[in-house]
Every structure is written in C-alpha cells, then in structure tokens.
Amino acid sequence: MTTTRIDRMRALALAGVLLLLTAFGCLAQPVADKPQWKPGDAWEFRQASTPADANATWSRTIVEIPSADQIRVRQGSGAVETYDAAMNFMPQGRADYTRILARYPMKVGDAWEVTRKFDNAATAESGTAKVAAFEEITVPAGTYKCYRIEVDSSQTNRTDKEQRLWTRWYCPDVKWIAKEILETRTFTRGRGGGTTIATSELVKYTPGP
C-alpha cells in the first residue's frame, strides 16, 4: 500500500471521527422550546454585589398570563410588571422598550442584536447577545443543565454611558434562569466611571399548580 493511499485512509478516518463528535455534540446541546409558563411559577434568588459586597434577595412570581405575548409578574417589592413571552421585562408594557435577553427556541450559536427605546429620545441602547454554551451549573437550588447567554449592551445619552455585561444561565428544568452575573460599567463626562458586579443564584424554584 502506497504512502499516499495510507494518508488518504487516515484522512477519511479522521473525518469520520469528527462527524461522530459533531453528531454527539448536537445531541448534547438540544434546542429548548419556550417554557410552558403557569401562574404560580416562582423563583427566589440570593444576590451578592461588589465592590459594596452587599447581600440581598429578590424574587419573581407569575400571577397572570393575559395573552400569548405577555406575562404579568410580581416582583419582590410587590409591584406587578409586564414581561414578554420569553420573560424579558417590558417597561410600560411596550415591546420597543424591551431589552431582549432571551429568545425561544433557544440553541447554542444563536445570536441577535439588542436595541431598545426610551421616553427620552436622547437616550439609546444597543448591543449584542449570543447563546454561548450548554453546560451544567450548581446553585443553592440544585444542579441543572443550562444555556449560557452572554449580552453586551451600552446605554448612552448626552453626558453618560452605561455598559452592561450579562451572563445568564437559562435552565429548562426551572423554566427560567438559575444564575446571573451582571457587570455594570458607568462613565460620566468630567467625573470618570466605576464598575459594579452583581451575582444572583437561584435559591428556590416553585412550579405553578
């Protein structure tokens, strides 16, 4: 057998192995459909922030699903706000004011532009989002397989800029996120800037009846 033929056989074998690895990778990273939300679905989080190193808790509870496009959610303060069908907060119930941090169906490799409007026309926000990985994480509520979404978005007006970097883990077993890391960088003309990092982890998930 000639050296050239042996090299070809090795190349074919390697290609076959790569195809199998790709197939197994696709199986390990399924496509997530939109969760079946229910009134009563509830999430409780513990949050730690730096540099203040403050600890806090926050929660979200679905109280009503008035349409296929909107969800009414009670926050920890008791206020009830409107979210879209992917559990993105909708300020004033307006789709054009909504920052899209998640989209369904969800799979690794998805990417989209992040834009939103404000009452003040001089304020604007834009950025990018991507589903970076499907991986296992452990939080106080348990261990889950989740989609890691990374978002880089900047909000600007005439004097200030605020850049937000989200890393969020969306987990089908709890219908929403189990962890979030939000890094906020602020820049004010003439006064410099600063950075804060808030890390939230799911403490308890309660499914609706």
| DSSP strand content | over 45%
**What composes the largest sheet?**
10 strands, antiparallel
- Helices and strands, in N-to-C order? HEEEEEEEEEE
**Helix and strand composition category:** mainly beta
Walk across the major sheet and give the strand order.
4-3-2-1-10-9-8-7-6-5
Q: How many distinct folded domains?
A: 1
Any idea what the shape is?
globular
On the 0 to 100 scale, the average pLDDT is 88
The first-level CATH class name: Mainly Beta
What is the straight-line distance between the termini?
Answer: 69 Å
What fold name goes in the CATH topology slot? YmcC-like fold
What count of helical segments does DSSP give?
Answer: 1
Count of beta strands:
10
Estimate percent helicity: 10-25%
Uncertain segments: 17-27
How does this structure look, described?
With 209 residues, the protein is mainly beta. It has a single domain (38-206), classed as YmcC-like fold. Helix content is 12%, strand content 52%. Strand 7 (142-156) and strand 8 form a beta hairpin.
Q: What is the fold's blueprint, element by element?
A:
Blueprint: H1 3-28, E1 42-50, E2 55-67, E3 70-75, E4 80-84, E5 111-116, E6 124-139, E7 142-156, E8 160-170, E9 177-188, E10 192-206
Antiparallel strand pairs: 1-2, 1-10, 2-3, 3-4, 5-6, 6-7, 7-8, 8-9, 9-10
Structure at a glance:
With 209 residues, this protein is mainly β. Helix content is 12%, strand content 52%.
